[in-house]
């Protein structure tokens, strides 16, 4: 289970935090690290010093340019968020996240990404809206900004707790779950949806009014299966054909 | 409760770890720090940098020569231990420690000390034997040595969880949830959806193929809010207008 949990760091500025993250991950048995557009050289003397023997995690990390590249194959994407945002998103505690992991990862093809933002400014709203849920580590409201590696440590600890809890219990015999849509499939769907809504005159990107954010939140909350997403995309294609059909064509007349 | 939990660091070598400890403590609402025979200058530029705004905790720390001086007034002393020792001692997990805290600290005169050893060698047997219990943070057996500040972070997090759990017995102050769509509103939406899907030629009631059942299951799983359902109905209305628009009309030209 732990090998299918990916830690994603976006725009990290301090190599020491990458090293500290690697150490926290290896301590808790995690190994899959992705760096999105780091704002520093990831592998420096500081990295190796803070990694304290876990720098192989940094050597093995994938460095990519966008969040999509880092989480495209993931079935659950959870963003670490310190603040509540204008548009509230499903918010879970680290403990609830841990408790959900055995179920989320029951399908051997499932993958979970835990996404952490920049040291100074966290995740952007656009990044947060690409997540199924946000996890907030409870902190002192007067001093809420955790060190990046410390935040990874807390969530990695809850991952290990969940894994240990699972080892201690009987193997579950739940029905095999339907495959969930991956992050990449969901993003293709949202692009298709936005294109269609523009096509039928319902959505004006110049006056977005949080329309796409609301539709994202609604859809992500349902955790669509791959087959459901295929149906929704079929509906979009049929809708586009209506918007584009030549004058005089009868909608129902195939 | 949190103000009566003391973090005790014995023989710390790196000022950065003292700073990281101060940050982790302040993040979780702890404030009482004691340094026993530190092997470095506690307050350096590294301390302040890693403390990241929590260096007042280090300024307020008591520096003493012996463990006894640091924990003399404590009613429960728990030592952080990576290893199992020759003489087995009561061993608890971080979670069990947290769960015990409200009871341990019920008496306003009670105080708890969490004692952490040297970066390189931990606590001595003599120090461990001065503790009521040992707490072991579960780790990867192949890489079990946590960074000092990371270990403080995990235990401080469990302290805060325990405190929050205690607060939760009092009435919660959660944000008022958005009103969910009623059953009746949902049924009107599903009728509208089916009508629209027939209108665009996507759905044939004579060959239903469980289409509406699948869309119902997906939608109900998300527990739509009333406002979300209004958006979805708006999209259906715009879609119907496309399907019904007179020949030669431009979809985008309102």
Oligomer: homodimer
Mean pLDDT of chain A: 91
User: Share of helix among residues of chain A?
Assistant: 40-55%
Spatial extent as radius of gyration of chain A: 20 Å
Q: Strand order across the biggest sheet of chain A? A: 3-2-1-6-4-7-5
What about the largest sheet of chain A?
Answer: 7 strands, parallel
How many strands appear in the DSSP assignment of chain A?
7
What is the CATH architecture assignment of the largest domain in chain A?
3-Layer(aba) Sandwich
* Overall morphology of chain A: globular
Q: Which CATH class of the largest domain in chain A applies here?
A: Alpha Beta
Name the beta content range of chain A. 5-15%
Secondary structure tally, helices of chain A: 10
Distance between the termini of chain A: 49 Å
Biggest interface, chains and residues, is: A-B, 66 and 65 residues
Provide the low-confidence segments of chain A as ranges. none
CATH superfamily of the largest domain in chain A: SPOUT methyltransferase, trefoil knot domain
Number of domains of chain A: 2
What this model shows, in words?
- The structure is a homodimer of 254-residue chains.
- The first copy, chain A, is of the alpha/beta class.
- In chain A, 45% of the residues lie in helices and 11% in strands.
- The first copy, chain A, has 10 helices and 7 strands.
- In chain A, strands 3-2-1-6-4-7-5 form a 7-stranded parallel beta sheet.
- At the A-B interface, α1, α7, α8, α9 and α10 of A face α1, α7, α8, α9 and α10 of B.
Provide the descriptors you would attach to this structure in a database record.
254 residues, alpha/beta, Alpha/beta knot, Helicase, Ruva Protein, domain 3, 2 domains, 7-stranded parallel sheet, 45% helix, globular
